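Look over what follows to help learners.
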Amino acid sequence: MPIVQIATNLKTVAPSFLRSLSGCISKLTNKPANDVVVLVTKGIDAFYSDSEDPLAYVRLQSLEMPANVHSAYCQGITDHISNELNIDKGRVIIELCSPPSNNLGKDGKTIADIRNGH
């Protein structure tokens, strides 16, 4: 269940961006698009590299994310955000997190419990 959170100082983000980002994350993680959660916070106050130019801070959480895919994920996410939101690639900051399955839940159960049939 990948969860991608984006905070940006852009004032508007087209609703279609959420769907397109969901597809991008689905493809990168090889997980179904209907399992991808996309959260976008727009219009934040943000400052980076001595500038208030457009930026995006991205946090992707995905279970069992091997370290050998981190570079490909960063490249894919950066390209997508840069192309879709017209944000300079150098201003897309990404944090990758791979929590254990007992630290994420849905339907009142942890993912570990769901996988174990509880």
